[in-house]
């Protein structure tokens, strides 16, 4: 997608939406902090499930974006490891708008450079990892296992790691799948339809249009082993390739 794909009106509307996004965060932050303090952190689930989606919908409305969720399953397990395709900065708004129960996000370490994200992220128990250091990232995830199990939390991760990857669906890292095996959690794949088409990628400059979060049937990992892990990751990634409507390729999982 090139700069010429966007008209003046879309730039203006996007700038208004971005401004609204930060204003909403600034207004909501003291309210959220108050709730977390008076409940000794127990309001974290309420913040993620109820307040976060409410904060995102005005931003979508200003941007001219219609957001919808479609659940392609009779039942969604709790807890679980949720995985998403990651292709644009718009994904950040989309995952916040989902409001999934007892969910925590695995985000890149750099998000903490924003003091608001740092404060709210830490207080609500989000997980920040250094993606460029695979061993350190895995170690950070393993340290959270006790808390995740104790509080019966679900985790959301992007197997592609960064939005900067070749093609529509980038190579999958093994981290989310190793975590699912370690925790003995099923994997629930979510495919974001429209995010890449509406966003410029590295900014929140967007076109108006439709976004849909397709939440698919959970994947049972009871027969997964270290020996067959790559095979299963390749199969999961092939589903995303199919959902994206592109031809299959031979990109192997990366550690």
TrEMBL record:
Q: Which SUPFAM superfamilies match?
A: Glycerol-3-phosphate (1)-acyltransferase (SSF69593)
Keywords, A to Z, come to: Acyltransferase, Membrane, Transferase, Transmembrane, Transmembrane helix
Membrane spanning segments where?
A: 15-40
GO BP field: phosphatidic acid biosynthetic process
State the Pfam families in the record.
Acyltransferase
Pathway field of the UniProt record reads:
Lipid metabolism
Q: Which CDD domains match?
A: LPLAT_AGPAT-like (cd07989)
Question: Where does the Phospholipid/glycerol acyltransferase domain start and stop, copy by copy?
Answer: 80-195
Q: What domain of life does the UniProt record list for this protein's source?
A: Bacteria
InterPro entries linked to this entry = Plipid/glycerol_acylTrfase
Q: Which GO terms describe its molecular function?
A: 1-acylglycerol-3-phosphate O-acyltransferase activity
For this entry, the protein name equals 1-acyl-sn-glycerol-3-phosphate acyltransferases
Q: Which organism is it from?
A: Fodinibius salinus
